[in-house]
TrEMBL record:
It comes from the Bacteria. This is Uncharacterized protein.
């Protein structure tokens, strides 16, 4: 067996969008939402862009589908870039 070096828990990210009928089709964009690694899902989900979404109004996607939220993508790219430094 190899040695185990201290490992940081990975942040969980979900891709969600509002369900059909909650908003018009042009507002159903794919948001990137950080989730807690343990414990219950929060009562309000806050996307990287700052949008607040209620879990009951959201659908979880397998990946970015349809139109992505450009602000979420930009913020995730910046976060990834800062982590690589």
């Amino acid at each position: 067996m190899g040695n185990l070096v201290h490992a940081e828990p990975a942040e969980l990210l979900a891709v969600i969008r509002l369900r059909r009928g909650v908003v018009g089709e042009c507002r159903r964009v794919s948001h990137i939402v950080p989730l807690p690694a343990t414990g219950p899902i929060p009562t309000e989900l806050v996307a990287l862009c700052g949008a607040t979404i209620l879990p009951a109004q959201a659908e979880v996607l397998d990946g970015i589908a349809g139109m992505p939220c450009e602000a979420c993508l930009a913020r995730q790219a910046r976060r990834t870039s800062l982590q690589l430094r």
